[in-house]
Structures are given as structure tokens and as C-alpha cells.
Amino acid sequence: YQFVFICLLTFLLHTSTNRIAYLLKIKSVPW
Known about the structure:
This protein has one helix and no strands. The protein has one helix spanning 2-28.
């Protein structure tokens, strides 16, 4: 169970970091 939990946690962390980077990329665009 621990292995699955770690995989799920890393997956959520990776998706959250990608989302944050995406939002920062949108904010960094000078409109």
C-alpha cells in the first residue's frame, strides 16, 4: 500500500507543479 500511496502522492505533486508553472507562464505573458 505504501508504494501506491507514494506513487499517487508524487503524481499529485507533479500535476500541481505543472499547473502552477502553467499559471505562472500565463501571468508572465505581458498583455
